[in-house]
């Protein structure tokens, strides 16, 4: 994807953000935009968080009507990388699994496959 294509996607999401619509519709429309510039396995997950506690208050994932209870338990109680609270409190507010695990995979850091 070219830098111009990425910028068009950013501009479209900014435009969508300023238009009146319900949250689920907004997330669906953003999923379509993101899918054109960022490869993903299934579809992106979208969340709202309570700003004080950083607990998930809503979730949207096309094809996954309900966030599984075991995933939620793992998110808050299991030791893992790339937890939502860690991403939300990071400097950039975004993260990839590759970025989150490269420090624990020295072979990948060195450029050799694991």
Find the count of extended strands (DSSP E, 2+ residues). Answer: 2
Shape: globular
Quaternary organisation of the protein chains: single chain
By secondary-structure content and strand pairing, the structural class works out as mainly alpha
Q: Count the helices. How many?
A: 6
Please tag this protein with its features.
114 residues, mainly alpha, two-stranded antiparallel sheet, 6 helices, globular
How is this structure best summarized?
With 114 residues, this protein is mostly helical.
How is this structure best described in words?
The chain has 114 residues and is mainly alpha-helical. The chain is built from six helices and two strands; from the N terminus they run ααββαααα. A hairpin with a 6-residue loop joins strand 1 and strand 2. It is globular, with a radius of gyration of 16 Å. The model has no long low-confidence stretch (mean pLDDT 85). The protein has a two-stranded antiparallel ribbon with strand order 1-2. It has helices at residues 3-17, 23-37, 69-77, 84-88, 97-101, 106-109; strands at 46-49, 56-60. It starts with a helix and ends in a 5-residue tail after the last helix.
């Amino acid at each position: 994807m070219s830098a111009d294509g990425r910028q068009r996607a950013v501009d479209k999401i900014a435009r969508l953000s300023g238009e009146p619509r319900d949250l689920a519709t907004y997330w669906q429309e953003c999923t379509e935009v993101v899918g054109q510039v960022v490869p993903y396995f299934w579809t992106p997950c979208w969340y709202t968080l309570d700003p004080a506690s950083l607990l998930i208050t809503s979730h949207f994932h096309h094809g996954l009507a309900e966030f599984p209870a075991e995933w939620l338990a793992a998110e808050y109680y299991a030791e893992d990388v790339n937890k939502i609270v860690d991403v939300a409190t990071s400097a950039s507010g975004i993260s990839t699994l590759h970025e989150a695990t490269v420090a624990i995979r020295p072979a990948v850091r060195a450029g050799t496959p694991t």
